[in-house]
Amino acid sequence: MRAALVLVLVGLLTATWAHATYVVVLKDGSRVVAREKYEVKGQNAVVRLKNGALTSFPLAYIDLAATEKINAMKLGDAVALEGLDGEPVVRATATPTPSVAALGRLRQGVAAAEGEAALPTPTPGITLQADGYSDSRVDRAFQEGLERYRLYLYRTSRGTKPEFLFIEVQVAGQAEVYKSLEAIATTYHLLAQSAPTRAPAQVEIQMLNEARKEAGLFRIGVADAAELATGKVSAEDFYLKHVIF
User: Fold this and answer.
1) Which stretches does DSSP call E strand in the chain?
2) Closest Cα to residue 219, out of 196, 188, 195?
3) Domain boundaries in the chain?
4) How many whole angstroms separate alpha carbon 161 and alpha carbon 65?
């Protein structure tokens, strides 16, 4: 009998809902993080963003089923996660990670101009690709890992090689940069332990700030992820060691 491949995301940050968060999923796959559910006014949806500002867009742009699903998950709860072979497995209760608020500042000059000017020379080509990653369940596991850390503004695709996974994360400040690295590294490490033949050969990461300018570019392997996931290095040291300038 085919052995079940089990992926258990252990040690991921338990998301708390003390401060209301509502995620609006749009039909193009992008997401808007709001304080509360949108208000329908005519053919438009009015959304109050996390910073209190109001914005609106056509109601037809919203993927209603996906929006209801993600907000029904209550991501702080221990829930069943679909296994890589389609069988449900139960995630162990998560424990909080150390606060990243006290970690050091990012190196100056990391946030650079958009486009080719934002990339190192020679350009490594780490950017969103037109094709998705070949294993949708592995892709979904990384998405679940990010959402466990309350990181919702991301996109994934295949990387610069078919066996590489690419993740783009929009971050608001240094805390979310470090938190994103922790979420991705922990997911990658646990996947490599539980289903090593299906783990990506490399994970490529592009961080974008709120102005969508680059805040960090990375290409990490299994051994790199293990260092951060097991606490051998801090998130700040991991950033400084692996960021590509």
Assistant:
1) 22-25, 31-34, 39-41, 44-48, 54-58, 80-82, 88-90, 154-158, 164-170, 202-208, 214-220
2) 188
3) 102-242
4) 32
Q: Which residues of 113-132 are buried (b: 16+ CB within 10 A; e: fewer)?
A: eeeeebbeeeeeebbebeee
Q: What is the mean pLDDT of each run of 10 residues along the chain (245 residues)?
A: 38 38 83 84 81 77 88 51 38 34 33 40 73 92 89 91 94 90 95 92 93 90 95 93 87
Rounded Cα–Cα distance for residues 173 and 101 (Å): 10
- The letter for the amino acid at 145 is G
The structure's pTM equals 0.59
Residue 155 tokens, joined:
């996109």
Phi, psi dihedrals of residue 101, rounded to the nearest 5°: -65, -30
Residue in the block written with tokens 């209550």: 74
DSSP 131: S
Cross-strand partners of 25: 31
- Look at phi and psi of residue 242 and say left if phi exceeds 0, alpha if psi is from -120 to 50, else beta: alpha
Contact by Cβ (8 Å): 151, 144: no
